[in-house]
Amino acid sequence: MDPFTYSSAAVRVTFGEATISRIGDELQRLGKSRAFMLADAHHRDGAVRQVEEALGANLAGISLDAVMHTPVDVSERVTAMVTEIGADALIALGGGSTIGLAKAIAWRTGLPIIAIPTTYAGSEATSILGQSEGGRKTTLRDPRVRPLSILYDVNLTLGLPGPLSAASGLNAMAHAVEATYAADANPVTTLLALKGIVALARALPQIVAVPLNKAARSDALFGAWACGTCLDQVGMSLHHKLCHTLGGSFGLPHAETHAVILPHAAAFNAVAVSDVLGAAAAAMGASDIGVALFDLEQQLGIPTSLAALGLKESQLDEAAAIAVAEPYWNPRPFDRKDIRQILDDAWRGRRPSVQEKLS
Ligand code: NAD
Fold this sequence. Notes:
Largest sheet: 6 strands, parallel
Shape: globular
Radius of gyration: 20 Å
Bound molecules: nicotinamide-adenine-dinucleotide
Helix content: 40-55%
Number of strands: 8
Strand order of the largest sheet: 1-8-5-4-2-3
Distance between the termini: 33 Å
Strand content: 5-15%
């Protein structure tokens, strides 16, 4: 057999409806009694109240301060509040930005996290913390920031607008697509990656068509967990590097940037790893991964070009320079010219084709 190493994390994951009501049990299971909640402002009058009622005196404080890309100054300010209050656990209720703030605090304090994710970004399943400071985004891996318990509650996702659902689902699919060709991929992560791609490719068009479709929303949450778990287990490549560059240095929106870049990064890499990306395309019911992803995005009605996200054509050279500044592994070698071409295709929103690149 092909040799490989697989190590799994001790995480408790609960899927279902109204699972938020189990927050007290989860806190107790961790042996904690003084939680501090990081919550997305969108949930201020709904889910936040539910947690307040469920925990009563066991909820020591709440912060609605999370913003995108986890700026260090916000993390330090809220960490000071958490320490001052003497909290013994963190609850993260919201999307990747809120979970990011909880992770930043956990990294600084060692407190355990219970995550209640309400988008499909997949951050709740990882030990990765991305932070931004001075216009640069850096990431680190530390098991202390991986939530110990995840409560997926489909009811909390019903209000996530179609375009946000689509973009965040594509963000999750990006983890899975890159996991298929990771240098440290193994049969378990590949299986999860393909399962995640199938679930999200099937669910997202249904969610955009009927946002209250609970079956599709549940499917998407499973996909988010599967894809996020892949991100946790294996290394990422070109696609994630480009997105970190565009988000960290040019302030582009995270999920939408992933959605725009993914078809182009996948098409570029498919030339080198046609077997695994062929399997990923097949999981979407297609033969060409770049085309399949691009067409899915068009069907979902989300932006397909960097220009539509506000990047100026004059910024492409600088973006390419930053993206190649620190070497990292990718299944297909590349130079600055390749990156500039990928960025140009993504900026214009060209429909990619692996077949064209092969010929
Ligand atoms: P987000 O958390 O910024 O949320 C996007 C918007 O959706 C916000 O306006 C929020 O208020 C709203 N929202 C969230 N849940 C909602 C709901 N159920 N209904 C209605 N509105 C809702 O976006 P995101 O895409 O979830 O996360 C992006 C961030 O996550 C980035 O900073 C990214 O770096 C990070 N991320 C980290 C990892 C990791 O492993 N470290 C993985 C993926 C993403």
